[in-house]
Every structure is written in C-alpha cells, then in structure tokens.
C-alpha cells in the first residue's frame, strides 16, 4: 500500500530514547513506512523543536507521530500544533494521527484528553476494529499511553475500541483518521523500548506483563492497508 503521487508531511512530535537510535529508525521514518515508503514524497518536521511547515498546503497528507510528551503539557509548540491541525483540517489536507497524534487531533477538534485513571496501557493489546455497521474484528496492536481521549469530537466516529480505551480509533469522515495504539512499532522496537524503561520510569511490575504480552505479531498491516479506504484515496 502506498499513497502514489501524493506528498506526505510527517509532523514529528517526539523522538525515541538515544540508546535506541542505532538499532531503530526514528518515529518519522516508522510513520513514513506505515503509510508507504515509495513512491510517495515525504518531508519531516520536528514540531517538538518548533520546526513547522510554512503552509498547511505543503502536503496532501499530514501524519502526526507518537511522542514521550503529553498533549496536556501546555507547551507553546503543542498549542501551535493544535492551530496547525485546525487549519489543515479546514483545508483539503488529509490527516493521520498516532498515539500523541490521535490525542492532539481530538483535542484540536473539540474533544477532551485526560490522564488515565488506572495504570498506563503498555504492551500488545487486543482491540476491536469496527466497520460501518458496527461489526467488530479482533486486532492486536502495540500500545504505550498514559493519557487517552475521554470525549471524542462531535464529528468523529469510533472505529476501534478496547476494554481499556473506548476511543482507540477515530474517523473524521474521509478527512482524518487516528489511532491510540502504535501500528508503526515493530515487535523488536516495542521490546527494546519496554526494556530500556523498566526500572527507569516504568515500574517492573508494569514492565514484566508488558514484555510477556509480546507473544504474537501485531496486525499493523491491517491498519496500513485500510488507510487509503479511511481517507477515500483512490
């Protein structure tokens, strides 16, 4: 699957831990590969460093990555990104949001994001992918989030849900789509990420079951294959 002939702009909202850079591509490359590395044209913008595109029309599709930051932090670049999302949504651009991107898209368009009331969701999680008739197909995807969407924007339809996250996937007609889990994460990256944080920001009693959950291949290819349909791209 690829968005042939379209230009994709990656809005990078964070970077992986330094210790993992040698073994893994960074989040902008992961997201580029999710939407199709070739023959599309991609540009990356480190918006968390206040590097923004000049115009919302500089890309046909904007992809907002995951991040270690919280959309609730209130930083200047986060507010600036919300404004960019609102302008892009009002234009003819399409938008894809992942984790942080899922949350800030919802927040920018009138939804509410909050800290989870329980433990963070970390590991390979089971989701239900919903079709237009509400029929559910099971799907496993990697997840890592402390926040989540608590109230969806009025124009959004739920397309993915789980026992721990009702608004795990949202579709905004054919203009935007977003997911709380990480279809761009490989199993090895997820394992390395949990390992590097275990006992160093992530309690061992959370890290152990998260690592133990990584027993099967995630259904990332299902999400990648559906992106064109969600965004009504021929």
Automatic annotation (TrEMBL):
Keywords: Glutamine amidotransferase. It comes from Pacificimonas pallii. Residues 84-188 form the Glutamine amidotransferase domain. InterPro entries: ChyE-like (IPR044992), GATASE (IPR017926). This is Type 1 glutamine amidotransferase. It comes from the Bacteria.
């Amino acid at each position: 699957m690829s968005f042939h002939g379209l230009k994709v702009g990656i809005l990078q909202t964070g970077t992986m831990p330094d210790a993992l850079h040698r073994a893994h591509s960074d989040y902008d490359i992961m997201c580029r590969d999710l939407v199709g590395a070739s023959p599309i044209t991609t540009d990356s913008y480190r918006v968390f460093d206040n590097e923004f595109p000049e115009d919302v029309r500089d890309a046909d599709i904007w992809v907002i990555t995951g991040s270690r930051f919280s959309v609730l932090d209130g930083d200047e670049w986060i507010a600036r990104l919300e404004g960019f999302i609102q302008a892009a949504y009002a234009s003819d651009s399409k938008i894809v949001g992942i984790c942080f991107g899922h949350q800030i898209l919802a927040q920018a368009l009138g939804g509410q994001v909050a800290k989870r009331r329980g433990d963070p969701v970390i590991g390979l999680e089971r989701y239900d992918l919903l079709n237009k008739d509400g029929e559910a197909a099971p799907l496993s995807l990697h997840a890592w989030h402390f926040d989540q969407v608590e109230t969806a924007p009025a124009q959004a339809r739920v397309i993915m849900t789980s026992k721990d996250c009702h608004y795990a996937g949202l579709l905004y007609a054919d203009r935007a789509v977003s997911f709380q889990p990480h279809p761009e994460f490989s199993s090895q990256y997820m394992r390395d990420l949990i390992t590097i944080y275990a006992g160093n920001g992530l309690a061992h009693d959370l890290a152990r079951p998260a690592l133990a959950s990584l027993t099967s291949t995630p259904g990332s290819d299902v999400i990648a294959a559906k992106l064109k349909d969600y965004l009504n791209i021929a």
